[in-house]
Amino acid sequence: NPNSSSSYSKEIVRGSTLPVGPGSVQGWHFQNEVNPRVHLCLTLPCFLSLCRLALAMMIFVNYGGGKYWFFKHQSWNGLTVADLVFPWFVFIMGTSTALSLSSMLRRGCSKGQVLLKILWRTFLLFLMGVMVVNPNYCLGPLSWENLRIPGVLQRLACTYLVVAGLDLLFAKPTPGSTSTEAPYAALRDLLPYWPQWLFMVVLEAVWLCLTFLLNVPGCPRGYLGAGGIGDHGKYPNCTGGAAGYIDRLLLGEKHIYQHPSCNMLYMTTVPFDPEGILGTINSVILAFLGLQAGKILLFYKDQHRQIMLRFCVWSVIMGVISAVLTRCSTEEGVIPVNKNLWSISYVTTLSSFAFVLLLVIFCLVDVKRVWSGAPFFFLGMNSILVYVGHEIFENYFPFKWKMRDTQSHSEHLAQNLLATSLWVIISYVLYRKRIFWKI
């Protein structure tokens, strides 16, 4: 029975065997469409490949990336490879939300039932982030004194709640007509969702007002710098400007990240959390852009050219906005690209990259059919388990061991590649045993 929660049907998609029925897409619930073969054969291979690739990159980067500088987070303004991974996860989550909500509504789930699932998943993700995947968990899960409240899973939870809830509020069971003769046919993946877009515009206006107009004691209005010795040491306690001030005010200094990436270079003296409250607003914007990618897949499920065209257009639009905001420079723009602040230029830049990457993978997997997603396919089947597991066991053998030369890139690279490969193997074993941990 493919509709039973205790069994999995198998759908052969582009040469890969995927568990469908109640299943998991990048850790998010996904169910069959009314006609699963038509829908899954178009969207899932492309989408899952991006999920697996992002998760594998995240594990490798979190384990050290061979200690190469480009696999470390940028100290403040600018980008490295490490700064690309988490935003792509957020983008993918938005795409997953579009696919899964559409699927559940098609299957006859009421909006009330879907809302309860959204709330439950949000709660579980936030709880796992605070109680399990926490830099201070070794002090005990209830050690409130130094417990970090923001975090990766916490941000995913809050972002998911807003984007999924908003999409559900205005959701329709099926997309509109895909006829090319329909009125405003070129915008049929946009116009039905104008209330959501209006909400996103208002949300971004809130971010801009708080960032540039909020009065932060001892700091210039609209400060976006790293503080410390930056800006000739004029504002040592202003790290992150309004973003840092809001976190310290609402959460307390002991409950946010104590060792930000800017600490060593700028010799900062105050804690700053890159997954803080204000940055979550732009995380929602990025997930919503991912949701738009999912809408494109839903509306043009049998039109490859239309999908690729729209991915290209969105990538160009986001790229142009980034160029205007940054003036194509690291430091001289109106709003620099900054991962710590999750600036709007960071979001537009990373979403532009994400649309390009999704386009490339779509062509390779779905159009040309030259790649099945291997060997990262299995990671996507248990992404939450893999993420939580790799965080908890990061400092344990065989994922880490004492090296002869701690300055050797080759030794670090071998260790980090092996650790990443081990999680791929673990995912494969779980897949073979049909063990799928989903929330």
Description:
With 439 residues, the protein is mainly α. A two-stranded antiparallel ribbon has the order 1-2. A two-stranded antiparallel ribbon has the order 3-4. Residues 1-43 have low confidence and may be disordered. The protein has helices at residues 36-62, 82-106, 111-131, 152-169, 194-213, 242-250, 263-266, 277-299, 304-326, 344-367, 383-392, 409-432, and strands spanning 9-13, 16-20, 23-25, 28-30. The protein is built from twelve helices and four strands; from the N terminus they run ββββαααααααααααα.
Brief overview:
With 439 residues, the chain is mainly alpha-helical.
Amount of helix = 40-55%
Mean pLDDT: 82
Q: What is the approximate shape?
A: globular
- Strand tally is 4
- Describe the biggest sheet? 2 strands, antiparallel
Number of DSSP helical runs: 12
Query: Reading side by side through the largest sheet, how are the strands ordered?
Result: 1-2
- What is the strand content? under 5%
Order of helices and strands: EEEEHHHHHHHHHHHH
Q: Spans of 5+ residues with little confidence (pLDDT < 50)? A: 1-43
Backbone CA Rg:
22 Å
Please give the alpha-carbon distance between the first and last residues: 21 Å
Class inferred from helices and paired strands:
mainly alpha
